[in-house]
Specification:
The chain is mainly beta and 141 residues long. Helix content is 6%, strand content 33%. The protein has one domain. The chain contains two helices and nine strands, in the order βαββββββββα.
């Protein structure tokens, strides 16, 4: 079997704003990503990327009202468990920016018709909310 990936299956950099023009928010805990080849039922092994950094997963809600997939799982390559932005009173979604976003297209043929799907990977989670003392008008100026 040929182990090479087609050009369409190679990760590429994408700006967060291009991938999520309406923004996104964290809706789950950040948990370790399992290495399915090395793990057993009794002993899970955390996955690592090609550079040896630990892999974590988090579920992110796409704020685009017309998004085909409302939530996506994102892998985070980081030496330590990333911490999502703090919750705001009364909210369950944490607005976030995925740092150093990489996207890998792949063919999802689990349904009736194959379709192109995307795998997301980043290196960190940044707070997307404006800092106190800043405003949208100040950012536009």
């Amino acid at each position: 079997m040929d182990e090479r990936k087609s050009a369409m299956q190679v990760p590429f950099k994408m700006s967060f704003d291009d991938a999520f023009p309406f923004g996104a928010g964290v809706v789950s805990k950040v948990i370790p990503a399992n290495d399915f080849e090395a793990s057993t039922k009794e002993r899970p092994v955390q996955a690592r990327d090609d550079s040896g950094r630990l892999l974590w997963t988090v579920e992110v809600l796409d704020f685009d009202p017309d998004a085909r997939e409302r939530t996506v799982k994102v892998k985070i390559a980081a030496d330590h468990q990333p911490v999502p932005p703090a919750l705001t009173d009364g909210q369950f979604v944490r607005p976030v920016v995925l740092e150093n976003l990489m996207v890998t297209p792949w063919i999802n043929d689990n349904g009736m018709r194959p379709k192109i799907a995307y795998s997301f990977r980043c290196t960190g989670l940044a707070d997307a909310r404006p800092r106190s003392g800043s405003s949208v008008a100040a950012k536009a100026a």
